[in-house]
Write a structure and sequence with these properties.
Shape: elongated
Strand order of the largest sheet: 2-3-8-5-7-6
Largest sheet: 6 strands, mixed, barrel
Strand content: 15-25%
Structural class: alpha+beta
Oligomer: single chain
Mean pLDDT: 84
Length: about 450
Amino acid sequence: MTLKSSLLFARSLIFPKAEKKSSARKSLFGALICIGLSIVPLIVVISVTNGMINGMTERIIGLSSSHIQAYVASNCLEVKTEANYKAFAEEFKNYPGVTETYPEIGITGLAAGKTIRTGIQIRALEGDIFSRNHYFQELFDVVEGSLEEYSRTSLLEEGAKTEKLAVVGQKVAETLDLHAGDTFRIITTKTTNGKVSPKLSNFKVAAIVTSGYQELDALWVFIPLETAYSSISLSNASYTVMIETEDAFSPELVRSQRELQKKFSRLANFYRWNQVHAGEFENFSSTKVMLVFIMMLIVLVASINVSSAIIMLVMERKKEIAILKSIGASPAGITLSFLITGMACGFGGVLIGLPIGLICSVNASKIVQFVEKIVNLIAKAGYLLKGIPATEITAIKLMDPAYYLQEIPVDIPFGQLFLIVGATILLSLIVSIIPSVRAGREKPLDILRKS
């Protein structure tokens, strides 16, 4: 039996000429639909998780640690004054790969609004950080106010500065009910003669910003570096320098880190971004692997339907198999025809699932918002039936911005999509092997006697 003959028989199995009811064909079509529907969530999960992880990674690298982070000793002379600290950070630019440095002072404190207080993480950076650092410029969105006045603070003469400005994260602003132009107090601690006492400083909200990743910026309050030295207690401050290189993912990053550590080991320790945030990135990777694994199990279960459909097709076409074998068809040729039929079923499922999955991925945000509305309507109806007042009902968030990005980004990995297509067709082939081999081993005399 030639390859052409096997292909022709496979075509007759998939598209029979005789118009008659066939349970096997219905089963084959059902298996095709199941495979298509199982591919859709797999594509959506991969596209959304890739977008989420890439978006979170970009914000963690650009806004938190930069490519390399230097932890400077708090008792060295290099951090005693603003000028010394800036000069010390500038020295890092003399080493291979380093393109920019941003000295920072981190202080844990309290922020007090009109009626409430909340813990904050004060980040003292140079006033022009939001215009000079491209990550800050691109990844922060201004919710209220303007960054222009804040950015000019580092350029003003000492006598021209009338009030202390701060840029507040959106979550802190919501907690304290702050708006652009409002005044709030920052409370830090200072140690005098072994006694700890609070130090209060009044700040005006220049702008309210968000990075779109609330878990990262929920406690951030930015103040100019010079203000930290002049108005904030630095008793419990930590000194770090954000070091930017040409590429955060370059193998040369390790070389830059080693060179800096070798030269400045007495004053600072240097860590790459994937060392500073190792826990977060391991969590991202394990979550993605688990989700993809679960979705692939769904595809596997759907593919098993192909095996059932092939078994039914073999039972339905026994007479044709017997006739073909009695006129010279080989067992291998019959087996190949049914294998081709199984692969065609998997390929058809891919043709259905792939475009639907891509459309759903691109519109993931709209789909989640629509589902949220339906869920909230059902939940609200249930609460009202129980007698719970509408004012006490809290909206359900499927993608809580406290843990995810506020906007669902989509990153379609075409390389992984090709793997999904190949894996689906391969699974369809594998599950078709046993029933196809049995079809090739059918004995024509036994079939014809029983018929």
